[in-house]
């Protein structure tokens, strides 16, 4: 039986989501095929947490653990860390150096997609529609007036790295822009200011299985808040419809764009790509790419797998097996 390290936790505010994802994933791994060992990476260290018994430190020389006096070397890593260091390429680079397979995108793609501005720049270069935006750095202050000379209100202001919509604001009037910048800079040294695109919001799970790119049933998100913020994402302030009620032309347009982004960014494993569909122009605009998407019971990917008629057990088996291919 293959030994799988289920790695959760993380070093950012997204750790709380990582722990929820790890519960869903852990509950749905096929234990007849895989032996699962839970690893928690957090600010206090890297820990192996057995079901029964004391937690112990992971040996970082070869990413091994000791279980009941036996040394365990893993066959693969199932990544369940949102944010750093599991979604930004750091752990991927470490596992690459150990020749240890893992379930997410590689180090380069993970690092690229963790930077929202670089992601949209590469996507635009590859012919994907994206919103006009500015990339700001803490060490080079830019005034609201300079921003609004280049972008039209309303705009979104968000930390450039990270996810879960922490530190994000929608700005409708010039007077609110500085406060939104300050809020985003509390979370990150880089900030993305992006023009608002009016349209319908969709999120799409994409997965490569046996060399075929599969698009999961599309989810439409209608938020009760002004935008799909942390509260809307994780505290029930949004409605998610899976599969989305859309016509065949819109569905094909979104699926084609999602597959193109997956190919263009050289993705692996399951990723979630967010789009706004501009109904006036009749085309999708890519917002961002999540290379370790949430897997809690309420998260979009489990919803989409169920809507497809699949079981989470079979799905996570395919995710793990793809790491070996």
Automatic annotation (TrEMBL):
GO molecular function: D-alanine-D-alanine ligase activity
Coiled-coil region: none
Keywords of this entry: ATP-binding, Cell shape, Cell wall biogenesis/degradation, Cytoplasm, Ligase, Nucleotide-binding, Peptidoglycan synthesis
Domain ATP-grasp: 120-321
Highest taxon of the lineage: Bacteria
Predominant location category: cytoplasm
EC top class, as a word: ligase
Presence of keyword ATP-binding: yes
Enzyme Commission numbers on file: 6.3.2.4
Matching HAMAP family: Dala_Dala_lig
Task of the protein: Cell wall formation.
The protein's name: D-alanine--D-alanine ligase
Species in which this protein is naturally found: Sediminibacterium roseum
Lineage of producing organism: Bacteria, Pseudomonadati, Bacteroidota, Chitinophagia, Chitinophagales
């Amino acid at each position: 039986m293959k030994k799988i390290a289920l790695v959760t936790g993380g070093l950012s505010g997204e750790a709380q989501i990582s722990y929820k994802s790890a519960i869903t994933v852990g509950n749905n791994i096929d234990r007849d095929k895989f032996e699962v060992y839970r690893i928690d990476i957090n600010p206090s260290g890297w820990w192996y947490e057995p079901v029964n018994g004391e937690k112990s430190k992971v040996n970082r020389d070869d990413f091994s653990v000791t279980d009941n006096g036996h040394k365990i070397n893993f066959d693969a890593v199932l990544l369940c860390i949102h944010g750093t260091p599991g979604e930004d390429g750091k752990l991927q680079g470490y596992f690459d150096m150990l020749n240890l397979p893992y379930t997410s995108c590689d180090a380069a793609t993970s690092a690229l997609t963790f930077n929202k501005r670089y992601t949209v720049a590469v996507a635009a270069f590859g012919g994907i529609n994206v919103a006009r935006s500015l990339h700001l750095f803490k060490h080079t202050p830019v005034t609201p007036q300079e921003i609004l000379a280049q972008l039209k209100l309303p705009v979104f202001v968000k930390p450039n790295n990270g996810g879960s919509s922490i530190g994000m604001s929608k700005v409708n009037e010039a007077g609110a822009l500085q406060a939104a910048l300050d809020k985003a800079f509390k979370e990150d040294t880089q900030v993305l200011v992006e023009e608002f695109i009016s349209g319908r919001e969709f999120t799409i799970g994409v997965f490569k299985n046996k060399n075929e790119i599969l698009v999961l049933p599309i989810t439409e998100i209608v938020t009760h808040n002004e935008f799909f913020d942390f509260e809307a994402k994780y505290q029930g302030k949004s409605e998610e419809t899976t599969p989305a009620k859309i016509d065949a032309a819109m569905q094909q347009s979104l699926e084609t764009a999602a597959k193109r982004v997956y190919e263009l960014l050289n993705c692996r494993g399951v990723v979630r790509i967010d789009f706004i569909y501009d109904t006036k122009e009749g085309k999708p605009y890519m917002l961002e790419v999540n290379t370790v998407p949430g897997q809690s019971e309420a998260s979009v990917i489990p919803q989409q797998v169920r809507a497809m008629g699949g079981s989470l057990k079979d799905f996570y088996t395919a995710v793990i097996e793809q790491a070996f291919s």
